[in-house]
Specification:
The chain is mainly alpha-helical. The chain contains nine helices and no strands. 77% of the residues lie in helices and 0% in strands. α3 crosses α4. The radius of gyration is 18 Å and the shape is elongated.
C-alpha cells in the first residue's frame, strides 16, 4: 500500500468519525473537539470530496465566525455545485438572490444556480426558479415559458 493511499484512508476515517460526533451536542460545544472536527471537515473538503465540500461549505456559511468563513463557505459550495451537488447549487442561488454587502442581488446568477440544482433533481430549486421566471428579478426579465417549464419540473420532482 502506498503512503498516499493510507493518508487518504486515514482522512476518510477521521472525517466519518467527525461527522458522527456532530450528533453529540455536548461534544460540539467543547472548543478542542470542535476545532479537531473542523480540521477533519476542512481536510476532506480540500481533498476534493464533493459531499465534504457541500457539508463544510454549508457549515461555514451558516455557523462560521466572521466574514472570511462566509466567503470560504461560498467558495466550497461553488466547488461542490460544480461537482454536481444539488443542495450546494440551490444555496448558491439563494445567496445570489439575497445579495450581500459586497454583491448586489443577481437574478441571473440565481437562475443559473437553481437551474443546475433543478436539473440535478432538487424540487425546491425548480419551484423557486419557476417563481423567479414568473416574477422576474434584478438582472432577469420575466419569462412565462420558462416559468411553466420549471413549474412542470417541480411537479415531476414532487412539489
Amino acid at each position: 500500500m502506498s503512503p498516499e493511499f493510507l493518508w487518504r484512508l486515514r482522512a476518510r476515517l477521521a472525517y466519518a468519525v467527525a461527522r458522527r460526533l456532530m450528533g453529540w451536542p455536548w461534544l460540539v460545544r467543547q472548543p478542542r473537539a470542535w476545532q479537531w472536527m473542523q480540521g477533519q471537515f476542512s481536510r476532506m473538503a480540500n481533498l476534493g470530496d464533493v459531499a465534504a465540500q457541500s457539508f463544510y461549505g454549508h457549515l461555514l456559511l451558516f455557523r462560521g465566525q466572521g466574514f472570511g468563513a462566509r466567503e470560504e463557505g461560498l467558495r466550497l459550495l461553488a466547488l461542490a455545485a460544480a461537482g454536481g451537488d444539488a443542495k450546494a447549487a440551490y444555496q448558491l442561488g439563494v445567496q445570489a438572490l439575497q445579495g450581500s454587502a459586497q454583491r448586489q442581488p443577481d437574478g441571473a446568477a440565481a437562475a443559473h444556480h437553481w437551474a443546475r440544482a433543478a436539473e440535478a433533481g432538487h424540487p425546491l430549486a425548480a419551484r423557486r426558479l419557476a417563481e423567479l421566471y414568473r416574477d422576474g428579478a434584478e438582472g432577469l426579465a420575466a419569462d412565462a415559458g420558462q416559468a411553466e417549464r420549471y413549474q412542470a419540473l417541480a411537479a415531476r420532482l414532487g412539489l
